From TrEMBL, chain A:
Its cofactor is FAD. InterPro entries: FAD-bd_oxidored_4_C (IPR004113), FAD-bd_PCMH (IPR016166), FAD-bd_PCMH-like_sf (IPR036318), FAD-bd_PCMH_sub2 (IPR016169), FAD-linked_Oxase-like_C (IPR016164), FAD-linked_OxidoTrans_Type4 (IPR051914), Oxid_FAD_bind_N (IPR006094), Vanillyl_alc_oxidase_C-sub2 (IPR016171). One of its GO terms (molecular function) is FAD binding. This is Glycolate oxidase. Pfam families: FAD-oxidase_C, FAD_binding_4. Transmembrane segments: none annotated. Coiled coil: none annotated. PANTHER family: GLYCOLATE OXIDASE SUBUNIT GLCD. Residues 48-226 form the FAD-binding PCMH-type domain. Keywords: FAD, Flavoprotein, Oxidoreductase. It comes from the Bacteria.
UniProtKB/TrEMBL annotation, chain B:
Keywords: FAD, Flavoprotein. It comes from Jhaorihella thermophila. Gene3D superfamilies: 3.30.465.10. One of its GO terms (molecular function) is catalytic activity. This is Glycolate oxidase FAD binding subunit.
Amino acid sequence: MEMPRPDPAILARKARVAQRLREVLPPDAVIDDDSETRVYECDALTAYKCPPMLAVLPGSTQEVSDVLRICHEEGVPVVPRGSGTSLAGGALPTADSVILGVARMNDVLEVDYENRFIRVQSGRTNLSVTGAVEEEGFFYAPDPSSQLACAIAGNIAMNSGGAHCLKYGVTTNNLLGVTMVLMDGTVVEIGGAHLDAGGLDLLGVICGSEGQLGVVTEATLRILHKPEGARPVLMGFDSNEVAGACVSDIIKAGVLPVAIEFMDRPCIEATEAFAHAGYPMCEALLIVEVEGSEAEIDFQLAKIKEIARRHDPVELREAADEDEAARIWLGRKSAFGAMGQINDYMCLDGTIPVTALPQVLRRIGEMSKKFGLEVANVFHAGDGNMHPLILFDANKPGDLETCEAFGAEILKLCVEVGGCLTGEHGVGVEKRELMLHQYSREDLEAQMAVKDVFDPAWLLNPAKVFPLSLTEERRAMAVAAE
Amino acid sequence: MKIMTPATEAELAELVAGAYGPLAPRGGNTRGVPVVGDILSVAGLRGVELYEPGALTLVVKAGTPLAEVEQLLAGENQRLAFEPMDLRGLLGTKGEPTIGGVFAANVSGPRRVQAGAARDFLLGVRYVDGGGRVIRNGGRVMKNVTGYDLVKLMAGSWGTLGVLSEVSLKVLPRAETQATVRLHGVDVKVAVKAMAAALGSPFEVTGAAHDPAAAEGPVVMVRIEGFEASVAYRCARLTEVLRIFGDVSVLDDPDASAVIWRDIRDVAAFHGKPGDVWRLSVKPSEAPEIAERLQADALLFDWGGGLIWARVPEGTNLRARAGAFDGHATIIRASVDTCSRLGMFQPEPATVAALSRGLRAKFDPRGIFNPGLMDAPVEA
Ligand SMILES: Cc1cc2nc3c(=O)[nH]c(=O)nc-3n(C[C@H](O)[C@H](O)[C@H](O)COP(=O)(O)OP(=O)(O)OC[C@H]3O[C@@H](n4cnc5c(N)ncnc54)[C@H](O)[C@@H]3O)c2cc1C
C-alpha cells in the first residue's frame, strides 16, 4: 500500500514545530522522541506502520485549537487519533504528520436524564459512557465489539456500529451534537440537546468523515433506558440458503429483534474448538435476541421459533436462564479470538442486501479455493453487514498480498450485488483505492468538495478515504502554500 | 414563472445544466416554500425501483407520491417509521406530497423521539447538483460508511444543494396495534416532567405530546405500539408511571388512538385558524419557559416537549420573543413578506453559517437552487 512521500521541508521544521507546540501545551503533552512516537505508528490495522513526526496529547478544546492553528500555520498534516482501534488504518500517520490524540480528554461534562443525553469529552471510551449512566438504568446504544477500548471520537469519525444496531441504529442515529475544531483553529458548535438541525445537517456529514473535516473534542449523545430484559435463541440450519430465508421471514413477520447474528460452518468449527460453547455442527447458525418484559420476550420468541420451525432447523435452543444466554453468546463473542488462535486474519466488513446472502457466501467459498486461503463468516444478518475473516500467515512471503487481493475481490462482490465496501469500519487507507468500484469520479468529487469547505488546505488526515491519485492535486496545493 | 416537469433524471440534469436563472425544485409543492424563479418539478419522476420487504428496503423515484409509497408498504404490513406529516391541512395547500419532498424537508412526526427522523431512514440518494451532474451517495443497505455521508446532508437541505431524483430508504414493520395513555388536567411544567418520565422508562413510548387546549381540558398523550399483549402490559406499567402526576386514563381503541396521533402529527388543532405558524426544536425541559415567552395564541407540544408548535399573529418575530435558547425556530406558515423579512430558518452562528454557505457554493456554484432560502435573513 502506498502512502504519500513525507515532505522534507516539513521534516526540517520538526524542532521549530515542537517548540511552538510546547508553548501552548503542558510539557508532557508534546512527544518528539523517536522511541516514544513509535507508540503511535499504527492502529489495529497492524500490517501498516509509520511513526509520526510528533504526537500531541491536548487536554482541552482550547489546546486542540492552539495545536491546529499552529500546524495550519506551519503547513503540517495532522492525524486525529482516539484509541487507535481502527481496522481500516484511519489513524495511520505519515512520517511528516502530527498525531493529535484525544485520549486525555475523557471527562463526563453533563448527564441529563430528564432530557436523555450525556455530554462527554471525545476521548472517553464507548463503554465508559454507558458506565457513567448505568446506575440510573440508562445506556448508550451503539456498542462496537471494541467498546472497552475505542473512543467516542473514533466512533463518530467512523460512524461505528455494534451488535444491537438493527434496533438502535449506529452512531449517527444516536449523536445529537459535537464541539469540533477546524484545521485553522476555529471552534464550532453543532447540534445540542435538541433534535435535528436548524439549517443544513452538518452533524450528519461530520459523523463518518474519518477525521478529515475537523477534530471533535466534545459530543452530546442520546441515552436510553435499558429494556427490562433480553433473551437469545440459537438455531442451526443445514444450509446458508435456509438460514438466509429464515432471517428474511423473521423480519417480514413484523418482529424486530435487537440482534440477528449469523455464523457459517468454518466459523462454528473454529469457535467450538476454542470456546466450547456447545454449538451444533451444522452449515449455518443464527443467534436471535429480543428484548422486553418476560412475557413480551416469551411472546416474541414463540413467534420467532414458529418461523424457524418452518425451515426445518437442525437445532433450536432457547436460553432458559442467564447462564444459557451467556453460553449462546459465548461462541459468537469469541469468534475473532478463535480465528486469531488458528492464524493471522484479515477482517472485512462489506455490507450486502440480506437477500443476496446465500449467493455471496457461495461465491466467497469459490474464491477461497481460488486464492488458497481459508475464510470464515460471522455476520450481522439483520442488516447485511458481513464480517468475512480471511486466514493467512503473516510470516509466509506473499500471503498478506494474496489475502489483500482476496479481500478486494470479496468487497467488489459486495458492491456488485448492491451493497457497499464498508458497513462500519470505514475506508481509511485499507479500502481507499477501491472507492472507484463503488462510486464514480464525480460522486467522489462531490464528497471531496465537502473537505474543501471544512479543510481547504487538505491538512487533516489527508491521505485517507479517497484514492491517492484523486487527491494528489489538492494535497500538492497544501505543500505549495507553505 | 415557468413550470418544468422533466420525465427522466437525464432530462432533469439537462434542464439544470441549461438553466440560466433561479430554479425552485419542487415535489408536490405542499410545503409552502416561497418560489423564486422557475418551478422545477420532479413530479414526473415516479415509480418504485425496488421493494424488498424481507430486507426492509425500498428504492423509489423522488417524485413518487407519498400516498402511493404508504399504500405499497401497508400491503406488506410495513410503514415509514418516521411518520411524515401532511402539511396540506395546516397550509391550505393542494398538491400531492412526494417522497422526495419529505426527505428534502426532513419531515418527521411524533415517532421521531423513538424511531428517529426522516434522515435516519434515508439510505441512499441520487441527485442533480447545481452544475447539472447526477451524483450518487449512500446505497440501499442499512449499514454503509463508505465515504462521506452526503445522504444526511441532502436530507433537510430543502432543495438548496441539489434536486433529489431517487431515494432509497429503510422501512419498518407496522405495529400490530396501539393505545394511548392520557394524563389529564396538568399544566405545561408537569406535562413535560410526566413526558420525560414516560420517555425515560423502559416501555418504548413511540409518542409523547401535550395539548394544553384540548376540548376536554389540558391533556398529555403517550403512545404505545406493538403486539397486543405487549401493548396492554406497557399501558398498565405507564399508567403507574404517570399516576403520580395526576388523573390517568387509557384509550385502548387502536383506531381512536391512531386519529389522535394523526391530528398531533398534522397539528390539526391549528387548521383553519388565523395567524402564522412556527415550529421550535428545543431541549424538552426548557419548553415550558420558552413557551411562556412566546405569548402565542395557541401551542401544541410534541416530542416530549422538544417540539413546540406555536400560532401567533401575522408578522410576529417569534425568535425575538423566544430569546436565546438551545435549538431553532422555523417558520412553517407565514406570508412571503414575513418569510423574507425574518427568514424561514434560524440564523446560524457565524462559524456554522460560513460552512453552510461554503457547502452551498460547492454543490450549487451558480446559486440557482432556491436562492436565499436557507441564508441569513434581513432581520434576524
Ligand atoms: C477487536 C475489534 C473489534 C471491533 N469491532 C467493531 C464493531 O463491532 N463495530 C465497529 O463499528 N467497529 C469495530 N471496530 C473498529 C474500531 O474499534 C472502530 O472504528 C472505532 O470507532 C475506532 O475508535 P478509536 O477511538 O480507536 O479511533 P482511532 O482508531 O484512533 O481512529 C479512527 C478514526 O477516527 C479519527 N479520529 C479519531 N479521533 C478523532 C477526533 N477527535 N476528531 C476527528 N476524528 C478523529 C481518526 O483520524 C481515524 O480516522 C473494532 C476494532 C477492533 C480492533
